[in-house]
Amino acid sequence: MTDTNTKPQRPLPEKSRVAIPFWNAMREGKFIIQKCNSCHSYVFYPRIRCPHCFSNNLDWEEASGKGTVYSYTTVVNNAPSGFINEMPYVVAIIRLAEGVQMLSNIVDCDPSEIYCDMPVEVVFEKLNEEIVLPKFKLVK
Length: 140
Known about the structure:
Layout: H1 20-27, E1 32-36, E2 42-43, E3 58-62, E4 66-75, E5 89-96, E6 101-106, E7 119-126, E8 132-138
Antiparallel strand pairs: 1-2, 1-3, 4-5, 4-7, 5-6, 7-8
């Protein structure tokens, strides 16, 4: 028999081996991304090779944490999931100042305030001792 009163658990990100420095930095409140030492391009999501020149000469660099909203959607209705208590919530593609894009959430604002090209900056949400997520808030 299934307990219908049990709330679904919020899923945690899976940490790949190549992304361990990223997650360790998040726990320290540092926002880092990779940079290729061969072609000098920034890289996000964490990879073993540069997607621009295919070099494996990648290092981690502290990023500005600033960017703009490229695109977004507001989730107002969802089947029961681990995110049910978060609704409404904003899922956004953030174009970082370094030129790469990442999928994240925009927090601490009314979703009606958000628009494309709006400036945002990183904030950190601690889920547990191991996982801290980069999220974004509007720059006022």
